[in-house]
Amino acid sequence: MAGRGPAPKENAVRRNAVDLSHLEGDEDVPDKLKKLFKRDSYSVATLRWWDTWVESDQAESFKSTDWQRLQMLAPLIEAYYRRPGHNALAEIRQNESLLGATVTDRMRLRMGKNSDQPKGPEKPSSLPENVADMDLYRSLGGA
């Protein structure tokens, strides 16, 4: 038989649904945060870096603090392009990783383009036969 381990049960129910509510966009992000502050003072390379982030899929779920993080990174990016160094690159990599820059980062953060995934754990319409209804149990005087 092919495969690893025992075959899954036919009636297996996955109960550890992934909560993706943290990926919902912030509607109240001021437009000024999405525009690079003092844009004219930056090089073409830094502007390209900024525009790439603004147009990225993960930017749709950014909150105000994420945009502020990118604003703070812009001078560091500019300094790195003027004089590359491993210390600046390490700091840039770490900050971009927290924002989901690479495929691995997005996997770790459970970011994805699939909008058909449930936004959070949903309550089933009915319980399986072998599961107790705790609300009913409590209403009948249980703990």
Give a verbal description of the structure.
The structure is a single chain. By secondary structure, the protein is an all-alpha fold. The chain has a domain at 29-112. The protein has 6 helices and no strands. Helix 2 runs antiparallel to helix 3 and helix 3 (64-82) runs antiparallel to helix 4. The longest helix is centred in the middle third of the chain and has 19 residues, at 64-82. It is elongated and about 70 Å long. It starts with 30 loop residues before the first helix and ends with a helix. The model has no long low-confidence stretch (mean pLDDT 83).
In terms of per-residue confidence, which ranges show pLDDT below 50 for 5 or more consecutive residues?
none
Fraction of residues in β-strands: under 5%
Oligomer: single chain
Number of helices: 6
Rg (CA only) = 23 Å
What's the layout of helices and strands?
Layout: H1 31-34, H2 44-54, H3 64-82, H4 86-98, H5 103-108, H6 134-139
Helix pairs in contact: 2-3, 3-4
